[in-house]
Specification:
The chain is of the alpha/beta class. Helix content is about 25%, strand content about 30%. The protein has seven helices and 17 strands. The structure holds NADP nicotinamide-adenine-dinucleotide phosphate (NAP).
Length: about 300
């Protein structure tokens, strides 16, 4: 029997584990892929208070080490279902069932796809969603980064150090990400912006050999030969497994306020997976603390 079962080992989930353990609660964290969440694939984090600069990977490692050193239990398992059982919750995972007095959902978000048939087939064969994980495989090659947010800008910067040419393809003529990053990219000789263009298709049978774009202003299609396509078109929540126990909004986010309280007493939602305005590292950490303290209060009631 655990006091707090945490679904998701990203910044929100691991922060909740740190706060839970420090409050003397028996805490378990379930993570289906890799600990650290989204931030692990950020090349540089420069906006976390008190840390001027750190790689996302190092940040994630520090966080999971901190949770482990406080004796939080970290389990590699996918949570399939959560059910109320008497006063407690039965958490069904790919590694068996667990009973928890409270649950914190900190499921974060997953990569949004372009939705092309070829994208599915060529994932891992030239299509990637993580520049810091896969960038080195494209050393000396030409690649395209799709997207106009901070992730796409950072990915393009990161890849410009490895690749001979980086095309940054954005669907509008203005970037969503920070001007500071855009300015850094403008100074790179091997980076070319392709604005107001959408991806129509991907070419290549077994490996990517190009990306077919459509110029939204002229309506013309054109192909750029690349061996890698890094898709950075945002994130979407993945809360389908919990839709029958907590209320979701129309976009799939768990309805919860700053107190992280959901529609189901005893279940809390922390970080990017909940309805909120600002999805940043620091707000994910703040939610982790708020959710853990709310769970402790619920147990005391
Ligand atoms: P994002 O800010 O939502 O940007 C997604 C981009 O993809 C937008 O430019 C969007 O275009 C474009 N897009 C969406 N769907 C598309 C489609 N189907 N085809 C083509 N383009 C499409 O996502 P993100 O860049 O992953 O960033 C998510 C959050 O994390 C943001 O708040 C960001 O600031 C933050 N972040 C922070 C750091 C850091 O340094 N701490 C690093 C990375 C990300 P439109 O602009 O036209 O909508």
């Amino acid at each position: 029997m655990y006091d707090i079962g945490i679904v998701g080992g990203g910044t929100a989930g691991l922060t909740a584990a740190i706060y839970g353990q420090r409050a003397g609660k028996k805490t378990i964290v379930f993570e289906g892929t890799a600990y650290g969440g989204q931030i692990s694939s950020s090349a540089r984090v420069e906006n976390y208070p008190g840390i001027a600069v750190i790689s996302g990977f190092e940040f994630s490692m520090n966080l999971s080490e901190q949770a482990k050193s406080l004796e939080a239990e970290l389990v590699s398992a996918q949570v399939q279902e959560i059910r109320k059982e008497g006063e407690n919750f039965l958490v069904t995972t790919s590694r068996g069932d667990y009973i928890c007095k409270t649950v914190i959902l900190a499921t974060g978000m997953t990569h949004r796809h372009l939705g092309l048939e070829k994208e599915k087939h060529l994932t891992g064969s030239g299509v990637s969603y993580c520049a810091t994980c896969d960038g080195a495989f494209f050393r000396g090659r030409d690649v395209a980064v799709i997207g106009g947010g901070n992730t796409a800008l950072q990915d393009a910067l990161f890849l410009s150090a490895y690749c001979s040419k980086v095309y940054l393809v954005h669907r509008r003529d203005e970037f969503r990400g920070e001007d500071r990053l855009v300015e850094q990219l403008r100074k790179k000789e091997n980076v070319e912006f392709i604005m107001s263009a959408v991806v129509k298709d991907i070419s290549g049978k077994f490996m990517v050999d190009g990306v077919i774009l459509n110029n939204k202003k002229t309506g013309e299609d054109f192909t750029i030969p690349v061996s890698g396509i890094f898709v950075a078109v945002g994130q979407i929540p993945g809360n389908e497994n919990f839709a029958d126990i907590v209320e979701l909004d129309e976009n799939g986010f768990i309805r919860a306020g700053e107190d992280c309280v959901t529609s189901c007493p005893g279940i809390f939602a922390a970080g990017d997976c909940r309805t909120k305005e600002i999805r940043q590292l620091v707000t994910a950490a703040a939610d982790g603390a708020a959710a853990a303290l709310a769970a402790c209060k619920y147990i005391r009631m």
